[in-house]
Design goal:
mainly beta, six-stranded antiparallel beta sheet, 3 helices, 10 strands
Length: 164
């Protein structure tokens, strides 16, 4: 549904949406680009990256979505930096090897989003030389009968989603 020099966003046959964004290097110009069904906008340039907002059309209003974000950049998912910080050992110990393997995994984040005016807004901060993959799928909430939000001092999910 969207393709540019900085992003590719597609809609899958199951209705979920996924995309990849990247920032090879911080560019001097800010851009504002629209396609037929998606708009991508960089609002600001920060010292550590670009702030990107994406507006995606959705079929229904007030629908809850789960966004899964996987990030690879020089700060997270950087085993080379870890190896340098370890002193660039020629032969790794078991604990160093384990640490390098852990450092090679993308940072995974999730967010709950609610559509408004038949659109969903996604926000990202793309650091220099970063790649961000995201998936957006409609959420079908099925509360766990054994988990009591009130006893844990939390607001039930449905109330949190409705207050946004």
């Amino acid at each position: 549904i969207y393709k540019s020099e900085e992003a590719v966003i597609v809609k899958r046959s199951d209705g979920s949406i996924c995309g990849v964004l990247w920032n090879e290097q911080i560019k001097q110009e800010l851009y504002d680009e629209e396609s037929l069904s998606c708009s991508l906008k960089t609002d600001d340039k920060y010292a550590d990256g670009l702030k990107v907002n994406i507006q995606l059309p959705v079929d229904e209003n007030n629908t809850k979505y789960c966004e899964v974000i996987k990030t690879v950049d020089p700060v997270v998912c950087n085993p080379l930096k870890v190896w340098h910080d370890l002193g660039e050992p020629c032969s790794l110990s078991q604990s160093q090897l384990k640490l390098l393997k852990e450092a090679s995994r993308p940072l995974v984040e999730t967010k709950t989003l609610v559509s408004n005016q038949n659109q969903i807004e996604l926000k990202f901060l793309l650091r220099e030389n970063s790649v961000v993959f995201f998936e957006l799928s409609e959420m079908k909430f099925q509360g766990d009968r054994g988990y009591y939000y009130e006893q844990m001092g939390q607001v039930p999910f449905q109330e949190r989603a409705n207050s946004k």
